[in-house]
Structures are given as structure tokens and as C-alpha cells.
Design goal:
By secondary structure, this protein is of the alpha+beta class. The protein is 24% helix and 42% strand. The protein contains five helices and ten strands, in the order H-H-E-H-E-H-E-E-E-H-E-E-E-E-E. Strands 1, 2, 3, 4, 5, 6, 7, 8, 9 and 10 form a ten-stranded antiparallel sheet that branches.
């Protein structure tokens, strides 16, 4: 049984890893994930900026290289999975890199049902859990060669900036 103290420690550990960007063992991130609460689609609607939780995965650094900013969850079926910042500084939905748009679903993952984003153009699902009211931890999983053998870990924070 998870206690509030366990969860508080997991949240503190999560934010320490975000801040330091240290390489984490996936098992350590999985332990944090296990302590977090699931979320519903309605709870995550909005605009989010994101970042990686590096594990030595071959995707580490690739999102920053393409100018990835985050994700837009406007409704269950209006989702921009790869929001990037252009050379002009403007944010846009990069449909080429994301291989299309996406949709939101509540999906079973590791024995729990949580809000998840399903890509339209590739066999990839991003699962989300709540770190706090403005932060989500994400795990990318699927059958594409990028994540089939190893999950990719990331985070999202509510975007309060004006565009």
C-alpha cells in the first residue's frame, strides 16, 4: 500500500530529476511512476510544455533537436502531440514529426487506467500520471522500434505563457 509519505518522496525525487536532468535508470523512474495518481482526460485538457527524463534512451535529446515545446490537448479528438517552436519563435503543430495528430483515451497500462494519448500515424501511446496539479509524468510506449524494447520517459507542465 502506498502511503502519503511514499508519494511525497516520489514527487520530490521526480522534481529533483527534472531539475538535474541526470541520467536515471528506467527502474527508478518506474518506481516513481508507481507512486503517482492516475488522471482522466478531462483533467489534462489544455496546453502543456514538456521535457525529457533522460535514461540513455536513443530518443534522449532528439525532441530538443527538433524544437519540441510540448503538447496541446484541446479535446479528446483535437490533440497536437508534437508542438514545436519555429525559427520565428511561433509555436506550431509539427504533423510531419508526429506523423499526424492524436487523440486522448483512458487506457489500461500496468494495471491502472489513466489518460493516454494515441498517435494517429504510428503505433505509439503516451500514458500520463499526475505529479501535482500542473505537472504530468509521461511514458511513451508502443510497437515502433523507438520504444518497443525500452520506454521513453518525459514530463509535461501546464503552459501558462502567452503566445
Amino acid at each position: 500500500m502506498t502511503t502519503a509519505l511514499d508519494r511525497d518522496q516520489a514527487v520530490a525525487d521526480f522534481f529533483a530529476r527534472v531539475e538535474s536532468q541526470q541520467i536515471s535508470d528506467p527502474a527508478e523512474l518506474d518506481a516513481i511512476w508507481a507512486m503517482l495518481d492516475t488522471v482522466t482526460v478531462e483533467e489534462i485538457l489544455g496546453d502543456w510544455r514538456g521535457g525529457e527524463l533522460p535514461t540513455g534512451h536513443r530518443m534522449d535529446g532528439r525532441l530538443a533537436a527538433v524544437g519540441w515545446y510540448g503538447k496541446w490537448f484541446r479535446s479528446w479528438y483535437d490533440v497536437a502531440p508534437m508542438v514545436c517552436r519555429g525559427e520565428d519563435g511561433e509555436l506550431y503543430s509539427n504533423l510531419e514529426i508526429g506523423k499526424g495528430a492524436a487523440s486522448l483515451w483512458e487506457v489500461g497500462f500496468r494495471g491502472e487506467v489513466t489518460a493516454s494519448m494515441v498517435y494517429d500515424g504510428q503505433p505509439v501511446i503516451d500514458h500520463f500520471k499526475r505529479v501535482d496539479g500542473n505537472t504530468l509524468m509521461g511514458i511513451m510506449n508502443g510497437t515502433t522500434s523507438l520504444v518497443r524494447e525500452r520506454h521513453f520517459y518525459f514530463y509535461l507542465q501546464r503552459d501558462g505563457q502567452d503566445r
